[in-house]
Design a protein that fits this description.
The complex is a heterodimer of chains A (312) and B (298).
Chain A lengths: L1 H4 L11 H40 L1 H4 L5 H6 L3 E2 L8 E2 L2 H32 L3 H15 L2 H19 L7 H25 L3 H9 L4 H30 L2 H7 L16 H9 L7 H32 L1
Antiparallel strand pairs in A: 1-2
Helix pairs in contact in A: 2-13, 5-6, 5-8, 5-10, 6-8, 7-8, 7-11, 8-10, 8-11, 9-10, 10-13, 11-12, 12-13
Chain B lengths: L1 H36 L4 H5 L12 H32 L4 H15 L2 H15 L6 H25 L3 H9 L4 H30 L38 H11 L5 H35 L6
Helix pairs in contact in B: 1-10, 3-6, 3-8, 4-6, 5-6, 6-8, 7-8, 8-10, 9-10
Chain lengths: 312, 298
């Protein structure tokens, strides 16, 4: 028996058991570690949803604010400075939707033109010129956008239109520059992945470039461009500080675009530091965060539907 | 002739709009640098801020931003790499993979303020870390993780299939293939992506307002004991970053030179982001040359 034990280890023989085990251990450890990391992602999102929802729903269950009063009430007076506390967040929901929709309206045509410029008009240097521009615009921090908005756009609007310059117009202009890169990069990706045959057959029929773009290219990439627009709106909806700096923060529905207003994010930003956890005011802010989260889900669902349509 | 005229007009509009975007960026950068550069000096970059008097600097804020960046990367990189590798190599198509993909998508489009509030509730209050750099780093990890996962997954997926098959043919274990065949090839893209993602840490403020805090204690830069409350490298002290500082002086600054400080700090922030972008590209290309002995396409 001793002779067998002392045999030199060769490939044809039984491989060294130690080595065999080590490589399996490594594989097991690696697989477990990466799986745990992936599970952690799910844990994080579930806990965010759970904690924000548990705080946000307290407004309705603990403080007894009715759901419709919260969503459709137009009076915001959470500390009851003018009598009974009022928790109507309609003005903020209106502000959030108004700024993000207007921002998308301003940014979309610009972005689509930029994408077309990079892929159809001058594919060579157009891309070399605009690609870094778009990336830099995406890289500029939101507080810097807010600062520039406050020092350039607000005074300019004040000079041109009646009012203080602050308001939904200023907010949506700042946001439109911020979401431009999102829409442009998604649009450019979609345009450059288009099959060449589509374009070539249109040209072969004698169509001009604009006819090709308008009749063939744009209808084909429309779902992708809409995806970009929705993602841009989602970003605009959730942006807090840049908007807060230029919108004026008055808690009512403004009568014009140049009158002080508020968004869901701007109110949370301003009030969260000044409220005590657990009070009705604080809970109402959490309910607004819950509303923001809910809107994020809706945006993601829309994006998914558009992508599914795009695939067919 | 009508079609040709329409074509010319449309082309002109597209070109004008595109040049308008270029002009917007140049105007933005020009304005920020023009307003800010004149205010930047060694004194401005190193001294502490003043609340009422003028002449305040951004020294502690600049340090906090850089330190927070390092802390965030230390937490984000291992987790992001792990989850990204799982998605690229281990995940089988199915319900669970689909769920994780959805989670990444939702997480990356969450408003940063909501993530910040979650951090305030769970990390700052429940776990008791208080307003601290550590809380800020954890929240920024949540914020950056989806991006990091996506970058890693794409980098691993773009490695040619033959390399993996060659490894399998040699009888290597899967983990060995991941670490010694795929990872070196994927590394340059991962590094570029990570540095770009790190640039976002500089700019993020909304998530940090209620986690890293809006104030910095008096720091003693000769004290390197990480547990002392006045030490700059103590991760459990409150820290106001540069981006938060810009927001604060714009909304409640009462120093007479608040506008100049905001301009100077904005310029510093933008320059940092620019440097980060250029560095990411250069370093990624360099790594690619070193790791693969070939030129990168594009």
């Amino acid at each position: 028996m001793k002779a067998i034990d002392e045999r030199p280890v060769g490939i044809a023989d039984n491989p060294r058991p130690g080595r065999f085990k080590k490589h399996h251990m490594e594989d097991f450890a690696g697989r477990s570690y990466t799986t745990i990391c992936a599970i952690l992602l799910i844990v994080i999102i579930l806990s965010i949803v759970y904690f924000v929802a548990s705080k946000g729903l307290a407004t309705f269950f603990k403080d007894g604010v009715s759901f419709s009063e919260f969503l459709f009430g137009s009076k915001w007076d959470p500390d009851g400075n003018h009598g009974e506390p009022q928790f109507g967040v309609m003005p903020f929901i209106f502000g959030s939707f108004a700024t993000s929709i207007l921002a998308a309206v301003i940014a979309s045509p610009l972005s689509i033109c930029a994408s077309l410029f990079m892929t159809e008009i001058v594919p060579g240097w157009g891309k070399k010129l605009l690609q870094p521009v778009i990336e830099l615009l995406a890289g500029i921090p939101s507080v810097v956008y807010g600062f520039v908005g406050l020092t350039v756009i607000v005074p300019a609007l004040r000079d041109m239109f009646p009012g203080q310059g602050i308001g939904i117009a200023a907010g949506s202009i700042v946001l439109s520059v911020m979401i431009l890169p999102t829409i442009t990069s998604i649009g450019t990706d979609a345009l450059s992945s288009l099959p060449r045959g589509l374009k070539e057959s249109s040209y072969a029929l004698g169509a001009t470039r604009w006819q090709t773009i308008y009749r063939v290219i744009l209808p084909t990439v429309l779902p992708s461009i809409l995806t970009g627009v929705v993602l841009g709106m989602a970003r605009a909806f959730g942006e807090a500080l840049a908007v807060q700096m230029v919108i004026g923060n008055a808690p009512h529905i403004p009568r014009s675009l140049f009158e002080s207003a508020s968004t869901l994010t701007s109110v949370i930003t301003l009030d969260m530091g000044n409220t005590v956890m657990g009070t009705a005011h604080s809970n109402a802010l959490w309910s607004m965060a819950l509303a923001l989260m809910f809107m994020t889900f809706i945006f993601v669902v829309i994006v998914r539907l558009l992508e599914r349509r795009n695939r067919i | 002739m009508k079609a040709k005229a329409a074509d010319k007009i449309a082309t002109a509009i597209i070109v004008v709009f595109s040049l308008f975007i270029v002009a917007v960026l140049l105007g933005l950068l020009g304005f920020i640098l023009y307003r800010g550069l004149s205010h930047i000096s060694w004194h401005f970059l190193t001294s502490v801020p003043q609340t009422i008097r003028e002449g305040g600097g951004i020294g502690p804020q600049l340090f906090n931003s850089l330190f927070l960046l390092v802390l965030t990367l230390i937490i984000t990189i291992p987790l992001g790499l792990g989850a990204g590798i799982y998605m690229a190599e281990y995940a089988k198509p199915g319900k669970i993979t689909g769920a994780i993909r959805l989670v990444v998508e939702v997480l990356s489009s969450f408003p940063s303020i909501v993530v910040g509030l979650f951090g305030l509730l769970l990390i700052v209050n429940t776990f008791g870390f208080g307003f601290s750099l550590f809380s800020g780093a954890l929240v920024l990890t949540i914020f950056n993780l989806p991006l990091m996962v996506r970058i890693t997954e794409q980098a691993f997926r773009s490695v040619p299939k033959e390399q993996k098959e060659a490894g399998l043919a040699l009888g290597l274990s899967k983990w060995k293939i991941i670490t010694s065949v795929l990872f070196p090839v994927a590394l340059p893209s991962i590094v570029t992506g990570t540095v770009l993602a790190a640039g976002r840490v500089f700019g993020e403020a909304a998530a940090l307002l209620f986690t890293a805090g809006m104030s910095t204690p008096r720091l003693d830069f000769t004290n390197w004991n990480p547990l002392s409350p006045t030490s700059p490298i103590n991760p459990f002290r409150p820290a106001e970053t540069l981006a938060v500082h810009i927001w604060k002086i714009n909304s409640e600054g009462i120093a007479p030179d608040a506008a100049e400080i905001a301009a100077g700090a904005s310029a510093v922030l933008v320059i940092l982001v620019l440097v980060f972008n250029l560095f990411a590209r250069w370093f990624g290309n360099l790594l690619y040359k070193i790791m693969t002995a070939s030129k990168r396409m594009g």
